[in-house]
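Before relying on records like the one below, remember that each one covers exactly one chain. Contacts with other chains, cofactors or solvent are not represented anywhere in the record.
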Amino acid sequence: MKFLLTNDDGIDAPGLEAMRLAVEPLGEAIVLAPDRHLSGCSHQATTSRPLSLLEVGRSRYSLDGSPVDCARVGLTHVAPDTLWVLAGVNEGGNLGADVYLSGTVAAAREACLLGKPAIAISQYIRRREVDWRQTALWARHAIQLLIGRPPRQGTFWNVNLPHPEEPPADIPPCVFCGVDPHPLPVRYEHREGKLHYRANYHERSRLDGHDIHECFAGRIAISEISLRSLG
């Protein structure tokens, strides 16, 4: 089984290495990621200039473009025989309204548009360090589960890994859930003539049984995202 791996945190991000470790026992991994950090770039695509593709290691490439560009170049040029596209592991959650802003989710969405099954995986972070080895283990568990449940045509999977206060003794349960419809919290501080974003991501509104609630409660939240609507 061949996997195309990408992200929006850049080629050197620890989450991308965690994803590679997650799929190492499952098949061949081709890594193609942006050459820089592009978090929050949404579904941006480059069409007005040429793109530079650089081989930086065995089955490992960087591109001076967006995550969407990486999905496109990977599936049309580098690894057209890819069976699954895996985006992440993103450093930070992609829950609720985040799916509109996230470059990581956009890469999975683009793969879906191009007819490939895709999974976006993100690691929610509670203002402390992440154990990326644990992230890789939990990501592998979710990937194995979802390989057995390919997304329906026109949909892709969005997975958010929790960050419990205390490390659990076992892998957290996976919960299939809807995407929370609440907007992101928005607050700015006016200081020295400029507006500084100061909203608290961790205190955002949430609905029971939806992705934000489930992930914040310590479970692996899995949502099916449709190209037609968020449902």
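The longest helix spans residues 132-147.
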